[in-house]
Here is the input.
Amino acid sequence: FPHSNLLTNKETIYTYERNNTNMDAVVYGTRNCRFCEQVVRSLKKHTTSVTRIDVSADNPENLEEMKKFAGKDARTVPQVVIDGKYIGGYTETERYLNIVTFSEGLK
Here is the structure.
């Protein structure tokens, strides 16, 4: 993640109290992933917390954790989990957030 030169294995980067939404997101990604940064920005608008987990080559245990959610053949980042449910990559996450936003608007 470009803005986190000191990124450790796991880092909660955003926590916010919201009345309507209570979602916790985990983003598996790498330091120089532009889609990872974009999905984090989108998630900040819709979730109560975002935790980034670095799956770079020097963090093989995190890569294995990501594969438990995304499947053993997962090789691309970001991979996103919201409230323990695997959502997918950048595109799937954007679709999911659009559906959540739309359904909140109907309430």
Strands lie at 10-15, 24-29, 49-54, 79-82, 85-88. Residues 1-8 have pLDDT under 50 and may be disordered. The first strand starts at residue 10 and ends at 15.
